[in-house]
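Quick one:
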Amino acid sequence: MTLFGLGRSHAVYREGLGCTLEHGEPLTEVGLPSDDRQPALLPEIAGPAIVAPQSPHLVAALDRAFTEPASPPYRRTRAVVVMKDGRIVAERYADGVGIDTPLLGFSATKSVISALIGVLVRQGKLKLDRPAPVAAWRDPDDPRHAITVDQLLRHTAGLALGSSLQASLGSAFEPVNRMKFMEQDMAAYAASIPLETAPGAAWNYHDGNTILLAHVLRQAVGGSPADVLRFARRELFAPLGMRHVTLQLDGAGTVEGSSEMLASARDWARFGQLYLNDGMAGGKRILPEGWVNYASSPTPGGWVGIGAGFWTNRGDSFGANYRIEHGWPRDAFFAKGTIGQYVIAIPSERLVIARLGRSPNWPPEVDGVFDLVRDVVAATRDKAKLAGGN
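Output:
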C-alpha cells in the first residue's frame, strides 16, 4: 500500500499472530507457545450458547444498542456482553460475529499491557516508582533516565512524540504515527525521541508510552516474542479463560501493545471481571493487591479522565464529569479503544459491560454507549427487573 504514491506499507499475516507491518527485514518466524489447556481459574461466565437477555428491560437495552439511526452517522455495534455478579445476563452480536469471533480492541489493548505490567510488579520484577529499564536511557545524565514505569502508564513521561488523541491530516505526520506506520522497531524509535516536558510534569496521551512498556515487558520475561506470548497466556489469559486472543507484533517482534490485541467479546468481558474482582481469579491473586485502585486512580492533568492504563470517572476531570452527567456511575472505570470499543467495570453495580463496534468517534454519543450504560444499570439494579418484572 502507498499513500499518494509516497512510502510503502507491507502487511504480512501469520497464523496465530495476526498481521505485522514490515518495513525492512522480514520478522523472524515466531514459534507460538503450545496451548497446554491450563484450566481457567475465573468461574465460567456462561454456557456455549448465546445468552438471551434475562429480562424485557435488558432486551430493550440491547435493542437500542443495535438499532441504527435513520440517517448517518451510524452506530455499527458488533457485540455487547453484559455480566452481573460474574455471569452473563445478556449478549448480542451483529451478523457475522459470534461468541468466539476475535474483535480488535484498538487502545483497549493498553489496559491489557497495564495488567501484564501489574503481574510483573506482583512478581517483584518491576517497581512503579523506579526508572523504566529502557537501555537507551541507561545513562544517569540522560534526562529520560528519570522516566518511571508509573509515568509511562499514566502518559506523563514527557516524550515529544505528539498526541494519539488527535485525528487529522496534520497529525498523520507526527512522530507517533511515523512510529506506528513506518518504523520496523517501534520501541527503539520511541526510545530515541527527546523530551518535550520534564518527566511527570505534563499529561500527553500517545501510543509510544505503551509501546515502550510492551518492550519493557518483553525484556523482563526473557526477551523473545515467544517468551512474551507464553507469559501473557500463562499469567493472564489462561487463568481468566480467555481462549480467543491474538497479540499482534511489530516488525521487530515486540507486542504492538498500544492498539493491536484481538479477543472475543466474552474474553474482553472476562478481562473486565478480573478488575471487578480486585485482581483475583478463583482465589488466586493475578494483579498486585491495590492494583485496581491504582489503575483507576486519576492522573493529574488527564482531562479525559484517565488513570494508569484505564479511563476513570474518579476525580474531577472534564471527561469524568461529562460521563457522570450522562448517567455513568462515579465509580465506573474502563478500557477504551477508538471507534467504539469499551470494557466497563462498575463495582457498585457488580457489572461488566463489553461493547465493541465500528462507530465514528464524533459526536461522542453516536456509539450509543451512554444509553447502553444507563439502560443496563437500570435494568439490572434490582432483582425484580432482572427476573423480568416491571
